[in-house]
C-alpha cells in the first residue's frame, strides 16, 4: 500500500467513523442553535398570541370607534340642513324619500276620502232631517191653513144635510120599526129593559115564555125572584135585570094602577128605566115623538158630523134642533136600522151605502161595491135573505126588503 492510499484510507476511515473537526463544530453550533430555537419557541408563541390578541382588540376598538363616529356623523347630518340636502341628492336617499312621500300622500288621500264620506253622510242625514222637518212643517201649515180656511158648518147647512139623510134613509128603510116584539106598552117596557147589553133577537127569543107566565105588572111584581132570573138568564146580567123588572112592576102596580105612564118624567122614575128606554116606549107605544139615542144612533150621527157630543142627553138635544119633531121617532128607527145593517162600527160597508154621497166620513170602511156587499148584515143576525117579521101591531105591513138588492130598487123610486 502506498502512502497515498494509506493516507486516503485513513481519511476515509475518519469520515466514516468520526467527524471532521470543522464539521463537528458546525454541528455543535447547529445543535445549540436548534436547542436555543426550541427553547425560545414557547415564549415566542405566547408573545405572538399576545400580539395577535392586542391587534384584534385594537382592530375591534377601531371598528367600534369608526361605527360610533359614523353614527354621530349621520345624526349630525340629519340635524344639519346642508347634510340633509346632500343626502337628498343621493339616489338611494331620493328613492327612500320618494317612497315616504308617496305613503304620506296616500295616507292624506285616504284621510281626505274618509272625511269626505263622513261629510257626505252627515250632509245626507242633515238633508233628510231638513226634508222631514220641511214635510212636517208643510203638513202642519197645510192643516192650519185648511183649519183657518174651513169654517164650521152652519146650523142651517147641518139641518139641511140631516133632512136629506133622513129622506134617503126613509126610501131605503121604509119598513123601519122597533125590532123588539111586543103587544102592549108593558111588554115593550120589559123588552126594552132586557135589551141592554144583548141583541133584540135574543130578547125576542126570551120574552114569549116570560110574558106567558107574567102577562101583567101585578103578576110580575109577585114573581119568585129565582124563577124570574131563570127565565131571563139568556139575556145576560139576569140578576140585575130581574131586580129592575120586579121593581118597575111593583111601582106600576102601586103608583100607576098597573098601567105604564105616558111621560118621560114619570117613566124615568121607574127602576131600570132611563131616557132611551122612555123614548122607545113613548114613541112606539104612545106615539109621542122622541129620539132613541142608543150606541148605533150616537155612532152614526157623529160619523155624519151632525154632532160631536158623546153624552146621550146632549146628542138628543142637538139632533132635536136639526129635525122636525114629527120625524124624531122614525129618524131614530132608520138610523138604528142603517147602523145594524150597513154602517157597522168596525167595518162600515161604504161601497154599498145608499147615502154615501151625503156622508162626510165616506171611505172609513170598504169602498169596493162587491166587497162591501159581503159586509152587509141582515135581520138581527139572521141568515142572508131572512126577512124581518112585522110586529103584531103593524098589520098588513109589507115584507122588508133585502139589503143590497131591494134597497137599490127602493132608492131608485
TrEMBL record:
[4Fe-4S] cluster binds at residues 343, 350, 353, 359. GO terms for molecular function: 4 iron, 4 sulfur cluster binding; class I DNA-(apurinic or apyrimidinic site) endonuclease activity; DNA binding; DNA N-glycosylase activity; metal ion binding. Keywords: 4Fe-4S, DNA damage, DNA repair, DNA-binding, Endonuclease, Glycosidase, Hydrolase, Iron, Iron-sulfur, Lyase, Metal-binding, Nuclease. Residues 1-126, 378-413 are annotated as: Disordered. It catalyses: 2'-deoxyribonucleotide-(2'-deoxyribose 5'-phosphate)-2'-deoxyribonucleotide-DNA = a 3'-end 2'-deoxyribonucleotide-(2,3-dehydro-2,3-deoxyribose 5'-phosphate)-DNA + a 5'-end 5'-phospho-2'-deoxyribonucleoside-DNA + H(+). This is Endonuclease III. It comes from the Bacteria. Its EC number is 4.2.99.18.
